[in-house]
Design goal:
alpha/beta; 10 strands; six-stranded parallel beta sheet; Alpha-Beta Plaits; 3 domains
Length: about 375
């Protein structure tokens, strides 16, 4: 009884897989013709058909239509079966080749339509589609590190996505078509093996932030270690998205006030910031690991070294060691003490549920001592 499900599963595969059916048919024909010809030839042609292995070799060569001629039947019945073997071989090999071609063509069609399961690992998901999404791909394409693997998950037309895939040769891009807030679609994109995800609102989509929230909840349930960065349209939804465990949240137009005000109050400052953020200008913002021999030394020493040898300006330091915040300490039960503490922090304008795994140190003093996990954020050109 225990073997029944295995046999049933094997029969199901046999019925559905034409490639397996053809392979079995070829195997049966090779062994059947080898046995029949060996029976007739072994007595009358023993110098060629010394054993069954010689007959199998002859049958393989004949079915494959290679025809080496090193072993040939001499009896009338042997030649009759040889003729049947040749005809069977032509038909079977043609069907086998056609079946393999159809499998690859079907897979290619499914892949172009976004219906193929993704086998990437350690990849990045880009969920949703709008003009900013293509800008993200342009920046990825200019990356000086190893070639990125990106899976696009959206409901755009396959023709549009095909154009995008062909435009960025430095990125390995695959496409999954569907609603990225659904677990079945995320599983097809192999979210469990991904390392990061970017969620952007679909252009002209109503309820985009709500869809972003649902997608983050689904992603985190399938892969709790996934790093998720979300782009939302409404500032009021930021808190909800952070509560869904988004690692970083970008709000549309959140820096507009800065640029508008500084153009009037401090002319030039906004232009400098804009220049740094423009990836097409050449002076880009990168992160660079602090060399090991600088750990324990001062930030000033590293600053001068980078500036003099590489013409890099260090804007700040980041540390990705995950921090513990108040929401991790509170028990999240209904105790009056926890509720009181959390309420008091909220009244003070402190959000106890928000946390980020990245600690930022902008423009540190020159006497700051560099730590092992510090990473320098530099302005410059990386070769």
């Amino acid at each position: 009884m225990k073997s029944f499900p295995t046999v049933k599963h094997a029969l199901r595969i046999l019925r559905r897989n034409q490639l397996v059916q053809m392979a079995i048919a070829i195997f049966v024909v090779i062994n059947l013709t080898a046995a029949v010809v060996f029976f007739f030839e072994h007595r009358n042609n023993p110098e060629m058909y010394r054993n069954y292995g010689d007959a199998v070799w002859w049958s393989i060569v004949t079915v494959a239509t290679v025809g080496y001629g090193d072993i040939v039947p001499k009896t009338d019945l042997g030649r009759i079966f040889a003729s049947l073997t040749i005809l069977s071989g032509v038909i079977l090999i043609s069907l086998f080749t056609a079946t393999i071609s159809s499998v690859f063509v079907a897979r290619k069609i499914k892949e172009s339509q976004g219906l193929q399961d993704i086998d990437f690992t350690q990849h990045t998901l880009l969920c949703g589609w709008n003009p900013q999404a293509e800008d993200v791909l342009r920046i990825f394409d200019r990356s000086h590190g190893k070639q990125m693997q990106v899976v696009l998950v959206n409901e755009a037309s396959p023709e549009k996505i095909e154009t995008v895939i062909n435009a960025y040769q430095n990125i390995e891009i695959k496409f999954v078509r569907g609603d990225f807030s659904r677990e079945t679609i995320l599983n097809r994109a192999n979210v469990k093996s991904a390392v990061s995800a970017l969620v952007v609102p679909d252009a002209g989509s109503a309820g985009a932030d709500e869809k972003t929230l649902l997608s983050i909840l689904a992603m985190k349930s399938l892969n709790p270690k996934l790093k998720v960065c979300a782009h939302i349209l409404n500032r009021e939804n930021r808190q909800h998205v952070k509560r869904a465990n988004a690692d970083e949240v970008i709000v549309s137009d959140q820096h507009t006030a800065f640029f508008l005000a500084n153009h009037i109050m401090f002319p030039g400052t906004a232009q400098v910031a804009s220049e740094m953020l423009d990836y097409e200008r050449g002076n880009d913002v990168y992160r660079v690991s602090v060399p090991e021999h600088f750990v324990g030394k001062t930030f000033g020493e590293l600053f001068m070294e980078f500036k003099q040898t590489k013409n890099w300006t260090i804007l700040g330091l980041v540390n990705e060691e995950e921090s513990v915040n108040l929401s991790d300490i509170l028990s999240h039960d209904t105790s009056a003490i926890d509720a009181f503490i959390e309420r008091k922090f909220r009244e003070a304008g402190i959000n106890v549920s928000e946390k980020s795994g990245t600690r930022v140190n902008i423009n540190p003093p020159f006497d700051y001592v560099l730590q092992k996990k510090d990473i320098a954020v530099i302005l410059g050109t990386v070769e």
